[in-house]
Specification:
Layout lengths: L4 E6 L1 H28 L5 H19 L3 H54 L5 H11 L5 H16 L9 H16 L15 H17 L5 H11 L5 H40 L1 H20 L6 H34 L8 H8 L1 E4 L7 E7 L5 E8 L7 H22 L4 E7 L8 E2 L20
Parallel strand pairs: 4-6
Antiparallel strand pairs: 1-4, 1-5, 2-3, 3-4
């Protein structure tokens, strides 16, 4: 079947280039995964080694021309990294929530103990006052705060029988001595054992999320607002302030997640443009510098348009490189089969949309290659150069081209490329097309536009 046919051409060069692009995207995802994981303190060397080992396996796939495996593994690996990072962030958020709630309980306990000291005496040791006040304002937290609370509550109750204790003292004492009764020292400071305003719990979670996604600096304003609310007497006004703060935090967390995603996309695009710096030209390099500045300054407002433009630049470059590789592959194979292929043919093919090549030992006939500038799909057919010819030879010419086409497919495939026939007619199914090689819309077998007849 080597009458007129439509074929799809895939070259090893474009498969290698596609795999390299995928690998660069994976490298950006890995870098972000490592950076974020280390920033929030939930990543160890074993985790990083496992991911890098997986990357090396993908590199081996490229070396072995296992391009389908690369296409499958890279997106799966990137999705796995994103899911893993989400899980690690969730754990970090949960730990931060627990720490915030524990800190709030420590501050409340410090205030209660300090209040009891003041009830007993107007004169309080300056060191006692300072340490309890530091816990009460959150300046001292964690295990150190637990130790201070335990020490001063022991002093508070050392000379008082249980029957003489106030209700508040009984509550605090029960929390403290529970460690002696059942061996669970942490019970008295566990936030889940304390009644909490649900909205305060929401605030703790949103603040923790914001901290995990953007870092401590991003929550300073919100933490300050929360401290003011906590210092006020509960009432309708404070309820309204809490509701407003929750809403503002929800919006801030949403914006933080969106910012993280768009910065990741922009960084991947910047890596791609950096890898093809020579090919994108001066205008592309200027654009890339603007993208880099927007990433550095976290100019989120301008990034969407910059990303859209950059993706168009990359897509156009990919298309151009792939089409050049396809034309070069086909012309090289035809040259190896004895067809006359001259310098300039590839350029003329782009400009005119088609070229005709021929074999010197087969005068009056040639092969037409026609298709778009991307050369992804081509129409190939044997053609005649004159209508005044022996038509009995046409079938023989198509048969010869049938043999050459099969040889061309083997030559191309032998180099890691492929030619897939999408549609074809049988030999002799249609008359040979007659090509006037002097038509300016064609290119003759010398690879230059034919001259117009005067």
């Amino acid at each position: 079947m080597s009458g007129p046919k439509v074929v799809r051409v895939v070259t090893r060069e474009e498969l290698v280039a596609e795999s390299a692009r995928l690998l660069r995207q994976l490298d950006v995802a890995i870098a972000m995964w490592i950076s974020e994981g280390q920033r929030i303190g939930i990543l160890d060397d074993a985790d990083v080694s496992a991911v890098r080992k997986s990357r090396e396996e993908i590199v081996a796939c490229i070396r072995d021309d296992r391009f389908d495996e690369v296409r499958r593994r890279v997106p799966a690996e990137m999705e796995s990294l994103n899911n893993d990072l989400d899980c690690r962030r969730a754990k970090a958020v949960e730990a931060a929530v627990q720490a915030r709630q524990r800190g709030r309980q420590q501050k409340e306990n410090a205030g209660a103990i300090l209040k009891e000291f003041k009830k007993r005496s107007n004169v309080i040791d300056e060191n006692v006052l300072l340490e309890l006040q530091n816990v009460a304002i959150g300046k001292i937290a964690g295990g150190e705060a637990d130790a201070i609370l335990g020490k001063y509550f022991a002093l508070l109750t050392s000379d008082t029988s249980e029957r003489e204790l106030t209700a508040l003292q009984r509550e605090l004492l029960e929390k403290l001595i529970s460690k002696d009764r059942d061996g669970q020292r942490e019970k008295w400071v566990a936030p889940e054992n304390q009644p909490q305003d649900v909205r305060l719990q929401d605030l703790d979670r949103h603040l923790a999320e914001l901290d995990v996604y953007l870092g401590g600096d991003a929550i300073e304003e919100f933490s300050g607002r929360l401290k003011i609310i906590e210092s006020q007497v509960p009432g309708p006004t404070t309820n309204m302030q809490v509701d407003t703060l929750v809403l503002d935090l929800v919006n801030a967390v949403k914006a933080a997640k969106s910012e993280t995603n768009i910065l990741g996309e922009a960084k991947a695009l910047f890596a791609e443009l950096s890898a093809v710096e020579i090919a994108i030209g001066t205008e592309g390099i200027v654009y890339r510098a603007g993208l880099e500045a927007a990433i550095s300054n976290k100019d989120i407002a301008s990034l969407p348009q910059l990303i859209t433009t950059g993706l168009e630049v990359v897509a156009e470059l990919q298309k151009r490189n792939a089409s050049e590789a396809r034309r070069a592959t086909i012309l090289s194979a035809l040259s190896a089969l004895g067809y006359e292929v001259r310098e300039g043919m590839s350029t003329a093919w782009v400009e005119k949309g088609r070229i005709v090549v021929h074999k010197p030992n087969l005068p009056g006939y040639g092969v037409e290659l026609a298709g778009g500038a991307d050369a992804e799909r081509l129409q190939v057919r044997a053609v005649a150069f004159s209508g005044d010819r022996d038509l009995n030879r046409d079938r023989d010419v198509e048969t010869l081209w049938c043999g050459d086409f099969e040889k061309l497919r083997k030559l191309v495939s032998g180099k890691g490329n492929s030619i897939v026939i999408e549609r074809a007619l049988a030999i002799g199914a249609s008359p040979l097309k007659v090509v006037n090689i002097e038509d300016p819309n064609y290119v003759d077998h010398h690879g230059v536009p034919a001259a117009r007849k005067l």
